[in-house]
């Protein structure tokens, strides 16, 4: 279980990179697969996946399995309390 301080640090880490901020805004509007993000950012898929992992760890995005080809798709999510 993460403490509030640890959650805050994960959030700060996630938003410390301009690429992750842009990814977050894109994913808040539309679900996309890693290959689509790779094309947009002109980065390798492993590098995109690393950025997405940091966003996911900070609970800024969710990752869903797509029905076609079993691909994973990250998407922005709204937090509800």
For the structure shown, list the relevant keywords.
single chain, 81 residues, alpha+beta, two-stranded antiparallel sheet, 4 helices, 12% strand
Describe this structure as you would to a colleague.
This protein has 81 residues and is an alpha+beta fold. It has one domain (4-76): Winged helix-like DNA-binding domain superfamily/Winged helix DNA-binding domain (Arc Repressor Mutant, subunit A), CATH 1.10.10.10. It contains 4 helices and 2 strands, in the order H-H-H-H-E-E. The chain has helices at residues 4-14, 18-29, 34-41, 45-57, and strands at 61-65, 72-76. A two-stranded antiparallel sheet has the order 1-2. Helix 1 (4-14) runs antiparallel to helix 4 (45-57). Mean pLDDT is 83; it is low at 77-81.
Q: Helical residue percent?
A: 40-55%
How would you name the CATH homologous superfamily? Winged helix-like DNA-binding domain superfamily/Winged helix DNA-binding domain
Number of helices: 4
**CATH architecture annotation name:** Orthogonal Bundle
- Give the end-to-end Cα distance, rounded to a whole number of Å: 18 Å
- What does the average pLDDT come to? 83
Q: Strand pairing plus helix content: what structural class?
A: alpha+beta
Please give the radius of gyration in angstroms: 13 Å
Number of domains: 1
Q: CATH top level?
A: Mainly Alpha
- Strand elements, count: 2
Shape: globular
Largest sheet: 2 strands, antiparallel
Task: Flag low-confidence runs.
Answer: 77-81
How big a fraction of the residues is strand?
A: 5-15%
Q: Within the largest sheet, what's the order of strands?
A: 1-2
What is the N-to-C order of secondary-structure elements (H for helix, E for strand)?
HHHHEE
CATH topology: Arc Repressor Mutant, subunit A
